[in-house]
Amino acid sequence: MTKWVNRIVVLVLLVLFVSCSKTTGYEKKLDVDCRNLEPQKVDVFEYNKALFAIDTADFEAGIQAIRPQFQALLGDTLESYEMVYLKEFVTDTFIMRINELVEESFPDSDAVSDKVKGVYQHFKYYYPEMTMPPTFTYVSGINFDNGPVMISPEAVMISLDFYLSNKDLMYDKVGMPRYVSRRCQPASLTKDLAEAMYYSYVFMDVKAKNVLKEMIDRGKKYYFIEAMDPTLNDSVLLGYSSQQMEWAQDNEGQIWATIVGNNMLYANGFEQYRVLFNDGPFTAAFSDSAPARLGDFVGLQIVRAFMSNNDESLQSLLQMTDYQDILQRSQYKPRK
After folding, report:
1. To 10 degrees, the CA torsion angle through 214, 163, 170, 239?
2. For 73-89, how does the pLDDT look when each residue is reduced to its tens digit (9 = 90+)?
3. Which of 7, 70, 171, 210 has the largest CB neighbor count within 10 A?
4. What is the CA radius of gyration of the chain?
């Protein structure tokens, strides 16, 4: 009887140990309570609705009427050719259909406001001295050059037509590859916002990179994004399909062994960068089932391991430039 009691006690202790260990890593660091921080409410200014509601019979007067509210986007004055472009934009049948899909997907600003608020509150937690500029939504016409989120000192601009889940095959029609359009879903909005904030406010450009530095730099970026929205799942965070995410997780040891075994870790050649960091539908060097940007995936795992095994803050992590020290202190050892 005593033996069984002892065994039960040991099992309970093991369960408790495993449970505790799961909550003492990087995930526990990211689990912060920022609900009482500012902003408690985010006013999202819907430029898309205001612009497409203008009566085109007197378009210039309509632009002048909305200018005070949207000066951050429209500026102080508009040249005549800019006025012509805007009118052609809102009367283009393809753009009008995109706007209809945006209206269906985002009938009001509440959904966007709730998503944005959480990211801004997390940013305030880590950077209390920072205050975000006003937030605007707009329709870009699926403008690849600007991307889904832009940030200036005057405005955060979110292009809602990048979150339509390829309704009406709109992304196919503009020539967007499927591996890219897969990321154009509402769940990606906070990821894109946090990524834009990273490059606008905290990114440090380190020259003379090699594969290790590039991996860890990208890992830092993804860890920052996680810190701004800890609810993101890994497939959205990395832009993978669920099947690709599963492949990367199942083959993490093989990926790392290939990088180390082929002397890629400290290389800086084009071929190594192409294999590990180029975007695309898959990484043929590993498998047709392997996602692209496997260097991003490994970099994130190294940074997560580092944050799990060291008493460092997000801010201190982002300031670190000794990449070999980060790797060694991470104790990164993926299972084969």
Report:
1. 30
2. 999 888 999 999 999 99
3. 171
4. 23
